[in-house]
Amino acid sequence: MNIEEQVELLMQGTEYGDEDLKKAMTADLRERLLSAQKEGRPLRVYCGYDPTSTDLHLGHTITMRKLRQFQDLGHEATFLIGSYTALVGDPSDKNKARPILTEEQVMDNARTYAEQAFRVLDRQKTIIRYNGEWLSKLTLVDLIRLGQNFTVQQFLARDNFSNRLEKGEPIFLHETFYALMQGYDAVAMQTDVQVGGTDQLFNIIVAGRKLQEALGQKPLVGIICGILPGTDGVQRMSKSTGNVVPINTDAADMYGKVMSIPDSAMGLYYRLATRFGPHEIDGSRPSSTGRRRRTRRRRTLSAPSSSGRLPLRWRNTPSSRGRPCWMS
After folding, report:
1. Rounded to an integer, what distance in angstroms lies between the CA atom of residue 190 and that of residue 96?
2. Is 211 helix (H, G, I), strand (E, B) or coil?
3. Which of 245, 232, 249, 200 shows the shortest CA–CA distance to 58?
4. N or C, fewer C-beta in 10 Å, the chain?
5. What gap in Å lies between CA 22 and CA 14, rounded to an integer?
6. Residue 55 near residue 116, CB atoms below 8 Å
7. What per-residue string of b and e applies to 231-251 under the rule 16 or more CB within 10 Å gives b?
8. What share of the chain is helix, strand, coil (3-state, %, to 5)?
9. Cβ neighbours for 258, distance < 8 A, ≥ 6 positions apart
10. What secondary structure letter does DSSP report for 169?
Protein backbone atom coordinates (compact mmCIF):
# COMPACT_ATOMS: atom_id res chain seq x y z
CA MET A 1 0.00 0.00 0.00
CA ASN A 2 1.56 3.32 -1.02
CA ILE A 3 1.51 6.47 1.13
CA GLU A 4 -1.55 7.99 -0.55
CA GLU A 5 -3.52 4.78 -0.07
CA GLN A 6 -2.47 4.70 3.59
CA VAL A 7 -3.58 8.30 4.08
CA GLU A 8 -6.95 7.56 2.48
CA LEU A 9 -7.46 4.50 4.69
CA LEU A 10 -6.42 6.20 7.92
CA MET A 11 -8.51 9.33 7.29
CA GLN A 12 -11.63 7.34 6.41
CA GLY A 13 -14.40 7.95 8.95
CA THR A 14 -12.74 11.03 10.45
CA GLU A 15 -14.72 14.13 11.44
CA TYR A 16 -13.24 17.50 12.39
CA GLY A 17 -16.17 19.88 12.01
CA ASP A 18 -13.89 22.12 9.96
CA GLU A 19 -12.69 21.34 6.44
CA ASP A 20 -9.49 23.39 6.78
CA LEU A 21 -8.54 21.51 9.94
CA LYS A 22 -9.17 18.18 8.23
CA LYS A 23 -6.97 19.22 5.30
CA ALA A 24 -4.22 20.30 7.70
CA MET A 25 -4.32 17.01 9.61
CA THR A 26 -4.37 15.05 6.34
CA ALA A 27 -1.27 16.92 5.15
CA ASP A 28 0.45 16.40 8.52
CA LEU A 29 -0.33 12.68 8.43
CA ARG A 30 1.07 12.36 4.91
CA GLU A 31 4.25 14.17 5.93
CA ARG A 32 4.62 12.07 9.09
CA LEU A 33 4.16 8.80 7.16
CA LEU A 34 6.76 9.86 4.59
CA SER A 35 9.24 10.83 7.31
CA ALA A 36 8.74 7.55 9.16
CA GLN A 37 9.26 5.63 5.93
CA LYS A 38 12.52 7.47 5.22
CA GLU A 39 13.74 6.99 8.78
CA GLY A 40 12.76 3.33 8.78
CA ARG A 41 10.77 3.58 12.01
CA PRO A 42 7.13 3.08 12.98
CA LEU A 43 4.92 5.95 14.06
CA ARG A 44 4.03 6.07 17.75
CA VAL A 45 0.22 6.02 17.86
CA TYR A 46 -2.08 5.90 20.87
CA CYS A 47 -5.63 6.22 22.07
CA GLY A 48 -6.66 6.56 25.70
CA TYR A 49 -9.55 4.84 27.47
CA ASP A 50 -10.62 5.94 30.95
CA PRO A 51 -11.84 3.03 33.11
CA THR A 52 -14.94 4.78 34.45
CA SER A 53 -16.83 1.47 34.24
CA THR A 54 -15.89 -2.20 33.91
CA ASP A 55 -16.97 -2.69 30.29
CA LEU A 56 -15.71 -1.38 26.99
CA HIS A 57 -18.48 -1.12 24.41
CA LEU A 58 -19.06 -1.02 20.67
CA GLY A 59 -18.49 2.75 20.63
CA HIS A 60 -14.93 2.21 21.87
CA THR A 61 -14.21 -0.14 18.98
CA ILE A 62 -14.39 2.76 16.50
CA THR A 63 -11.09 4.17 17.76
CA MET A 64 -9.69 0.70 18.44
CA ARG A 65 -10.28 -0.26 14.81
CA LYS A 66 -8.36 2.85 13.78
CA LEU A 67 -5.50 1.78 16.05
CA ARG A 68 -5.66 -1.65 14.43
CA GLN A 69 -5.31 -0.06 10.99
CA PHE A 70 -2.09 1.60 12.14
CA GLN A 71 -0.90 -1.73 13.57
CA ASP A 72 -1.59 -3.53 10.31
CA LEU A 73 0.50 -0.90 8.51
CA GLY A 74 3.43 -1.65 10.80
CA HIS A 75 3.14 1.18 13.32
CA GLU A 76 3.44 1.10 17.12
CA ALA A 77 0.03 1.23 18.79
CA THR A 78 -0.45 1.96 22.50
CA PHE A 79 -3.72 1.22 24.28
CA LEU A 80 -3.49 3.74 27.10
CA ILE A 81 -5.55 3.08 30.21
CA GLY A 82 -6.37 6.40 31.85
CA SER A 83 -5.75 5.32 35.41
CA TYR A 84 -5.11 8.94 36.47
CA THR A 85 -7.32 10.90 34.10
CA ALA A 86 -10.24 8.74 35.27
CA LEU A 87 -9.72 10.15 38.77
CA VAL A 88 -10.62 13.60 37.42
CA GLY A 89 -13.25 12.59 34.86
CA ASP A 90 -13.41 13.83 31.29
CA PRO A 91 -15.88 16.75 31.00
CA SER A 92 -15.69 16.81 27.18
CA ASP A 93 -19.13 15.31 26.49
CA LYS A 94 -20.80 16.25 29.76
CA ASN A 95 -23.17 19.04 30.71
CA LYS A 96 -22.38 18.43 34.37
CA ALA A 97 -19.36 17.27 36.34
CA ARG A 98 -18.65 13.55 36.47
CA PRO A 99 -18.72 11.80 39.85
CA ILE A 100 -15.25 11.41 41.36
CA LEU A 101 -13.93 7.83 41.47
CA THR A 102 -11.39 6.44 43.94
CA GLU A 103 -8.11 4.86 42.81
CA GLU A 104 -9.46 1.48 43.94
CA GLN A 105 -12.60 1.85 41.81
CA VAL A 106 -10.57 2.90 38.77
CA MET A 107 -8.12 0.00 38.99
CA ASP A 108 -10.93 -2.48 39.59
CA ASN A 109 -12.71 -1.19 36.48
CA ALA A 110 -9.48 -1.43 34.45
CA ARG A 111 -8.78 -5.04 35.40
CA THR A 112 -10.16 -6.58 32.18
CA TYR A 113 -9.65 -3.67 29.76
CA ALA A 114 -6.64 -5.18 28.02
CA GLU A 115 -8.35 -8.52 27.42
CA GLN A 116 -11.42 -6.77 26.03
CA ALA A 117 -9.23 -4.63 23.76
CA PHE A 118 -7.52 -7.70 22.32
CA ARG A 119 -10.81 -8.65 20.66
CA VAL A 120 -9.99 -5.86 18.21
CA LEU A 121 -6.27 -5.16 18.59
CA ASP A 122 -3.38 -7.50 17.82
CA ARG A 123 -2.27 -8.90 21.17
CA GLN A 124 1.32 -9.36 20.00
CA LYS A 125 1.65 -5.81 18.67
CA THR A 126 -0.21 -3.82 21.32
CA ILE A 127 1.52 -1.84 24.06
CA ILE A 128 -0.58 -1.47 27.22
CA ARG A 129 0.28 1.48 29.45
CA TYR A 130 -1.31 3.37 32.37
CA ASN A 131 -0.99 7.15 32.49
CA GLY A 132 -0.45 7.03 36.23
CA GLU A 133 3.15 6.14 35.29
CA TRP A 134 3.90 9.81 34.59
CA LEU A 135 0.93 11.81 35.84
CA SER A 136 1.43 10.59 39.40
CA LYS A 137 4.92 12.14 39.34
CA LEU A 138 3.80 15.65 38.39
CA THR A 139 4.13 18.24 41.16
CA LEU A 140 1.83 21.20 41.73
CA VAL A 141 4.49 23.44 40.20
CA ASP A 142 4.61 21.18 37.12
CA LEU A 143 0.84 21.44 36.72
CA ILE A 144 0.90 25.23 37.05
CA ARG A 145 3.61 25.46 34.39
CA LEU A 146 1.57 23.30 32.03
CA GLY A 147 -1.40 25.58 32.66
CA GLN A 148 0.63 28.63 31.59
CA ASN A 149 0.16 27.50 27.99
CA PHE A 150 -3.61 28.06 28.02
CA THR A 151 -6.11 30.81 28.76
CA VAL A 152 -9.35 30.59 30.69
CA GLN A 153 -11.08 31.90 27.56
CA GLN A 154 -9.95 28.84 25.59
CA PHE A 155 -11.66 26.54 28.06
CA LEU A 156 -14.82 28.65 28.30
CA ALA A 157 -15.13 28.59 24.51
CA ARG A 158 -15.72 24.82 24.60
CA ASP A 159 -19.35 24.02 23.83
CA ASN A 160 -20.06 22.10 27.02
CA PHE A 161 -18.50 24.75 29.26
CA SER A 162 -20.08 27.68 27.40
CA ASN A 163 -23.48 25.97 27.60
CA ARG A 164 -23.12 25.53 31.35
CA LEU A 165 -21.98 29.12 31.76
CA GLU A 166 -24.99 30.35 29.81
CA LYS A 167 -27.35 28.29 31.98
CA GLY A 168 -25.69 29.40 35.20
CA GLU A 169 -24.54 25.85 35.96
CA PRO A 170 -21.22 25.26 37.75
CA ILE A 171 -17.92 24.58 36.00
CA PHE A 172 -15.52 23.10 38.52
CA LEU A 173 -11.84 24.02 38.42
CA HIS A 174 -10.67 20.41 38.48
CA GLU A 175 -12.48 19.80 35.16
CA THR A 176 -10.05 22.12 33.39
CA PHE A 177 -7.14 19.94 34.57
CA TYR A 178 -8.32 17.03 32.43
CA ALA A 179 -7.16 18.54 29.13
CA LEU A 180 -3.76 19.34 30.66
CA MET A 181 -3.39 15.76 31.88
CA GLN A 182 -4.38 14.25 28.55
CA GLY A 183 -2.15 16.68 26.70
CA TYR A 184 0.76 15.62 28.90
CA ASP A 185 0.09 11.96 28.00
CA ALA A 186 1.12 12.84 24.44
CA VAL A 187 4.29 14.51 25.71
CA ALA A 188 5.25 11.61 27.99
CA MET A 189 4.91 9.08 25.17
CA GLN A 190 6.44 11.36 22.49
CA THR A 191 3.36 10.72 20.40
CA ASP A 192 3.30 11.03 16.60
CA VAL A 193 -0.42 10.34 16.18
CA GLN A 194 -3.30 10.41 18.67
CA VAL A 195 -6.65 8.80 17.89
CA GLY A 196 -9.87 9.93 19.57
CA GLY A 197 -13.53 10.74 19.08
CA THR A 198 -14.97 14.12 18.13
CA ASP A 199 -15.58 14.81 21.82
CA GLN A 200 -11.79 14.81 22.25
CA LEU A 201 -11.11 17.49 19.63
CA PHE A 202 -10.05 20.15 22.17
CA ASN A 203 -7.96 17.73 24.23
CA ILE A 204 -6.09 16.43 21.18
CA ILE A 205 -5.85 19.35 18.75
CA VAL A 206 -5.48 22.15 21.29
CA ALA A 207 -4.04 20.64 24.49
CA GLY A 208 -1.90 17.80 23.11
CA ARG A 209 -0.38 19.70 20.20
CA LYS A 210 0.16 22.87 22.25
CA LEU A 211 1.96 21.11 25.10
CA GLN A 212 4.17 19.11 22.75
CA GLU A 213 5.18 22.29 20.94
CA ALA A 214 5.79 24.14 24.22
CA LEU A 215 8.00 21.31 25.49
CA GLY A 216 10.07 21.00 22.33
CA GLN A 217 8.30 18.15 20.55
CA LYS A 218 6.77 18.06 17.09
CA PRO A 219 2.97 18.49 17.45
CA LEU A 220 1.06 15.27 16.94
CA VAL A 221 -1.37 14.41 14.17
CA GLY A 222 -4.92 14.15 15.48
CA ILE A 223 -7.08 11.41 13.96
CA ILE A 224 -10.60 12.37 15.04
CA CYS A 225 -13.23 9.65 14.58
CA GLY A 226 -16.99 10.02 14.48
CA ILE A 227 -19.06 9.13 17.54
CA LEU A 228 -21.31 6.07 17.42
CA PRO A 229 -24.88 6.60 18.68
CA GLY A 230 -26.20 4.13 21.22
CA THR A 231 -29.01 1.64 20.87
CA ASP A 232 -31.51 4.51 21.06
CA GLY A 233 -30.03 5.86 17.82
CA VAL A 234 -29.85 9.39 19.24
CA GLN A 235 -27.46 9.89 22.15
CA ARG A 236 -23.82 8.83 21.97
CA MET A 237 -23.18 5.32 23.23
CA SER A 238 -22.43 5.71 26.92
CA LYS A 239 -22.64 3.57 30.03
CA SER A 240 -24.27 6.45 31.90
CA THR A 241 -27.24 6.52 29.51
CA GLY A 242 -27.60 2.72 29.40
CA ASN A 243 -27.63 2.58 25.59
CA VAL A 244 -24.47 0.50 25.14
CA VAL A 245 -23.59 -2.73 23.35
CA PRO A 246 -20.87 -4.15 25.63
CA ILE A 247 -17.91 -6.02 24.16
CA ASN A 248 -17.78 -8.29 27.18
CA THR A 249 -21.15 -10.00 26.74
CA ASP A 250 -22.56 -13.15 25.17
CA ALA A 251 -23.58 -13.40 21.53
CA ALA A 252 -27.32 -13.56 22.25
CA ASP A 253 -27.26 -10.36 24.31
CA MET A 254 -25.12 -8.57 21.72
CA TYR A 255 -27.39 -9.66 18.89
CA GLY A 256 -30.51 -8.49 20.73
CA LYS A 257 -29.03 -5.08 21.50
CA VAL A 258 -27.81 -4.50 17.94
CA MET A 259 -31.17 -5.57 16.51
CA SER A 260 -32.85 -2.88 18.64
CA ILE A 261 -30.94 -0.05 16.92
CA PRO A 262 -33.38 2.08 14.87
CA ASP A 263 -33.09 2.27 11.08
CA SER A 264 -32.32 5.98 11.30
CA ALA A 265 -28.93 5.23 12.86
CA MET A 266 -27.89 2.48 10.45
CA GLY A 267 -26.09 4.84 8.06
CA LEU A 268 -23.69 5.81 10.85
CA TYR A 269 -23.28 2.19 11.94
CA TYR A 270 -22.36 1.17 8.39
CA ARG A 271 -19.84 4.00 8.15
CA LEU A 272 -18.27 3.72 11.60
CA ALA A 273 -18.68 0.15 12.81
CA THR A 274 -18.13 -1.98 9.71
CA ARG A 275 -15.42 -2.49 7.13
CA PHE A 276 -17.67 -1.47 4.23
CA GLY A 277 -16.18 1.18 1.94
CA PRO A 278 -18.03 4.37 0.98
CA HIS A 279 -19.22 2.84 -2.30
CA GLU A 280 -20.91 0.03 -0.38
CA ILE A 281 -22.74 2.30 2.03
CA ASP A 282 -25.93 4.20 1.31
CA GLY A 283 -26.23 6.36 4.40
CA SER A 284 -28.87 8.63 2.93
CA ARG A 285 -31.80 6.32 3.65
CA PRO A 286 -32.54 3.48 6.09
CA SER A 287 -31.43 0.02 5.05
CA SER A 288 -33.99 -2.48 3.87
CA THR A 289 -35.01 -5.04 6.48
CA GLY A 290 -33.18 -7.86 4.73
CA ARG A 291 -29.97 -5.92 4.27
CA ARG A 292 -30.15 -4.61 7.81
CA ARG A 293 -30.57 -8.06 9.30
CA ARG A 294 -27.76 -9.50 7.18
CA THR A 295 -25.37 -6.78 8.29
CA ARG A 296 -26.33 -7.07 11.93
CA ARG A 297 -25.85 -10.81 11.84
CA ARG A 298 -22.43 -10.34 10.26
CA ARG A 299 -21.55 -7.92 13.01
CA THR A 300 -22.78 -9.90 16.01
CA LEU A 301 -23.30 -13.61 15.52
CA SER A 302 -19.66 -14.59 15.63
CA ALA A 303 -18.95 -12.80 18.90
CA PRO A 304 -17.92 -15.40 21.49
CA SER A 305 -20.30 -16.03 24.36
CA SER A 306 -19.09 -16.20 27.94
CA SER A 307 -18.49 -19.91 27.39
CA GLY A 308 -16.55 -19.24 24.20
CA ARG A 309 -19.30 -20.87 22.12
CA LEU A 310 -22.13 -19.51 20.04
CA PRO A 311 -25.75 -20.42 20.70
CA LEU A 312 -26.41 -23.72 18.91
CA ARG A 313 -28.90 -22.34 16.38
CA TRP A 314 -26.31 -19.76 15.19
CA ARG A 315 -23.17 -21.86 15.35
CA ASN A 316 -23.23 -23.14 11.79
CA THR A 317 -24.11 -19.90 10.03
CA PRO A 318 -21.44 -18.65 7.60
CA SER A 319 -20.90 -15.50 9.65
CA SER A 320 -20.06 -17.49 12.77
CA ARG A 321 -16.89 -18.82 11.19
CA GLY A 322 -15.14 -15.46 11.34
CA ARG A 323 -15.27 -12.40 13.55
CA PRO A 324 -17.69 -9.48 13.51
CA CYS A 325 -16.83 -6.60 11.18
CA TRP A 326 -15.92 -4.38 14.13
CA MET A 327 -13.42 -6.92 15.46
CA SER A 328 -11.03 -6.63 12.55
Report:
1. 32
2. helix
3. 245
4. N
5. 8
6. yes
7. bebeebbbbeeebbbbbebbb
8. 50, 10, 40
9. 58, 231, 245, 296, 299, 300
10. -
Distance CA 284, CA 267 (A): 7
Type of residue found at 246: P
All domains of the chain, ordered by start, with CATH? 3-225 (3.40.50.620), 249-327 (no CATH)
